[in-house]
Design goal:
It is a single chain. The chain is α/β, with parallel strands linked by helices. It contains 16 helices and 14 strands. The chain has two domains: about 220 residues, Rossmann fold; about 180 residues, P-loop containing nucleotide triphosphate hydrolases (Rossmann fold), CATH 3.40.50.300. About 35% of the residues lie in helices and about 15% in strands. The strands form two sheets. It has a seven-stranded parallel beta sheet with strand order 3-4-2-5-6-1-7, with helices on both faces. The chain has a seven-stranded parallel beta sheet with strand order 10-11-9-12-13-8-14, sandwiched between helices. Strand 3, helix 6 and strand 4 form a beta-alpha-beta unit. The longest helix has 15 residues.
């Protein structure tokens, strides 16, 4: 029996190449998500796309399916020069780049398409070696990509499909000058397909989209279409001094074993992770000042269950796709309401149920109205249950090794890492 007869109807109607259909079956895709249903008919026809869509809506698969389909249906004439991709995907964070590349690898299982990942904080020479061979798809953060391009290690002059993911995040993180420099190295917009994805569509994003795209199809997947219905959202009112006690009891009393704890600042995250670890929990830390190799190892340990509590800044708010996260705890609320949506989107994924708990003190109360307005809901703020106010064990002291590992404050700079055609096909 031909296994392709089992392909979900939504994907069967797209008439994708067989290698992709086999991969879709392997991955257990069911119906297309709203963003996939809106984007794919146009992107598969080669149209430029501007899509307003949040993380967790299936947009990564939407642009990957169109990229891979194009490559399979329009094979390169002759061999591809080393380091000269036909498709470029730019994303703002290393975690998101790695997740996109992982998703791509799953979809190209039955093809000979080659993917290269370029991010800061990981061995430069290994990435350089990868680019000495033919590569089809490059997924990269702006800073590392521009570094390779300026050193003539990667050639963007033959890019036929360019994806700019999380454009609003690029803007807020100050990456737009690098992105502009990258785009200038690709063919003119008349000679490439451009797909731009952004959770918001501000005036700045509109101007960028106009300069980078040609007659784009505009698609909007509104926040209310997100799968947040599967997430139970709770807000517990507490003082700043009582927050850690409530957090400890939440995890201990309710025996939570798969939780992502968000805090706004790196020092807060490091302090929280240290306290939880000294109290006997299996913890991991994910923040911008953690070396990339350690971040990768921590994510792997969280996925495997070796780490049960992952304490993170919003570097993990987007692009982190881990199954079976049962709880997201906001130790404090983000200033940007969009980040709240991304945080709670780490649980309740793929139809499963999840719980988001916010510990709101007097400072957090100022952020609540904007989040309620974005979501179109009114939170039922309540005092924590009595058991969450119980006394907790005294905190064991830090070891000498842990005290020595605390980063010294950098008094200079802002601490930000430097992570900043000739067509060869027949259409």
């Amino acid at each position: 029996m031909n296994r392709l007869t089992e392909l979900p109807e939504d994907f069967a109607r797209l008439n994708l190449p067989e290698p992709l259909e086999h991969a879709i079956l392997d991955l257990g895709f069911q119906n297309t998500t709203p963003v996939q249903a809106e984007v794919l008919p146009h992107s598969l026809d080669g149209a430029d796309i501007i899509a307003q869509a949040q993380t967790g809506t299936g947009k990564t698969a939407a642009f990957l399916l169109s990229i891979i389909t194009y490559d399979l249906e329009n094979p390169t004439l002759g061999s591809r020069p080393p380091g000269t991709p036909f498709s470029l995907i730019i994303a703002p964070t290393r975690e998101l780049v790695m997740q996109i590349a992982s998703d791509a690898e799953s979809l190209i299982t039955y093809t000979d398409i080659q993917v290269a990942t370029l991010v800061g904080g990981i061995d430069y020479e290994k990435q350089k070696t990868k680019l000495k061979k033919p590569v089809d798809i490059v997924v990269a953060t702006p800073g590392r990509l521009l570094d390779f391009a300026r050193n003539n290690i990667v050639d963007l002059s033959q890019v036929e499909i360019m994806i700019i993911d999380e454009a609003d995040r690029m803007l807020s993180m100050g990456f737009i000058p690098d992105v502009k420099a990258i785009v200038s190295r690709t063919p003119r917009k008349e000679n490439r397909q451009t797909q731009l994805f952004s959770a918001t569509y501000s005036e700045d994003i509109k101007r960028l989209a106009k300069s980078w795209t040609l007659d784009p199809v505009r698609i909007e997947i509104a926040p209310e279409q997100l799968a947040v219905d599967t997430v139970e959202q709770k807000v517990f009112l507490t003082s700043e001094d009582e927050k850690y006690k409530v957090l400890y009891n939440l995890i201990k009393v309710y025996e939570i074993e798969r939780v992502l704890v968000f805090a706004n600042r790196r020092d807060q995250c490091r302090n929280l992770e240290s306290k939880l670890r000294r109290h006997g929990f299996k913890t991991g830390l994910l923040a911008g000042d953690v070396p990339q190799k350690k971040r990768i190892r921590t994510l792997d340990e969280f996925k495997s269950g070796e780490v049960e509590i992952l304490v993170a800044t919003d570097v993990a708010g987007r692009g982190l796709h881990i199954d079976d996260i049962t709880h997201v705890i906001n130790y404090n609320l983000p200033e940007d309401p969009e980040d709240y949506v991304h945080r709670i989107g780490r649980t309740g994924r793929a139809g499963s149920e999840g719980t988001s708990i916010t510990l709101a003190c007097e400072n957090d109360s100022f952020m609540l109205p904007n989040i309620e307005e974005l979501l179109g809901v009114k939170f039922n703020c309540e005092n924590p249950p009595e058991e969450l106010g119980a006394d907790i064990p005294a905190l064991p002291p830090m070891s000498a090794a842990e005290r020595a590992s605390i980063p010294k404050r950098n008094t200079r700079g802002n601490g930000r890492s430097n992570d900043r055609q000739n067509n060869h096909r027949r259409r």
